[in-house]
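haha ok so turns out i had the wrong file open the whole time. this is the CORRECT one, sorry everyone. sequence first:
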Amino acid sequence: MTQGLLLVNLGTPDAPTAGAVRRYLAEFLSDPRVIDINPVGRWLLLHGIILRFRPRKSAAAYRQIWDERGSPLRYHSEELAAAVAAELGDRWKVALGMRYGRPSVEDALDAVSGAERVVVLPLYPQYASSLTGSTLQRVLGLAARRLVVPPLTLIRDFYVDPGFVASAAEVARPVLEAFVADHVLLSFHSVPEHQVKATDPSGAHCLASPGCCDRIGANNRGCYRAQSYATARALAADLELPDGGWTVAFQSRFGRIPWIRPYTDETVAALAKRGVKRLAVLCPSFVADCLETLEEIGIRAKQTFIEAGGEDLVQLPCVNAHPGWVRAVAALAREAVGSR
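then structure:
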């Protein structure tokens, strides 16, 4: 019997133009899990402010990372899907969908139709409502509309999966050895504070103390920040980073509400002012290099670091379609259906 594997990444504009970015942002930011305010307020914010000013600025950023193959996030994701299909063999159908943009989740579900069971793997290591939750909601909603609803197995997260951690470390290690960094920053995508607090069943643990993310327990099992710190600890151990030689921060915030801290841009500047001269940045909430890694870290954070007194910053590559990550994804899929 044939099994199915549905890989889902966030998405990307079709082109680095203001029009294409506007279409992408309109779909992305209309999601009530992304901007989780009342519908009227979300519409006014999106159409009255964001879509009037942000597309042109974001398109300029995309042009700095776009190459002859197109969007890095898309082609890295496509290469991963192709390599995983080869790794799994003929008894598997593997398809890639994007939560926003193309190829769509609906088209990807079509591509794995007829499978005995479909494993759904959102390509976000740590669980967040605005990422994983939104993706799973979309997949389940589309599957439920079908005349024959496919059997689905959902993989919610893989933040300390040994294959993921080992492949991320394997990609980072040679760059770290060549660069000879003074310090390593593990930068994760940020989310609003209220979203992580909402995952705490006790209502009294998340963000209530400086050590709330020191270990995973009953009250922070679904907390994105706690999972990010767990990923950071696992990577630091695999890379044998010394105590005090690495820091965690959170990037890509926007708007005026509080997002989880510490913030990457402020941390980069603070490290330079503290005397760090050579900073390596690893982005373990992304499995494919994209705008947030290549432009936000590789260009803007580097500029911030140098202007604050640092000498050089290197952005370490994501796992992309690295062979170790390909094997790890295949292993996750096989484990999900109970086969090896």
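The chain has two domains: 3-158+322-336, 162-315.
again sry for the mixup
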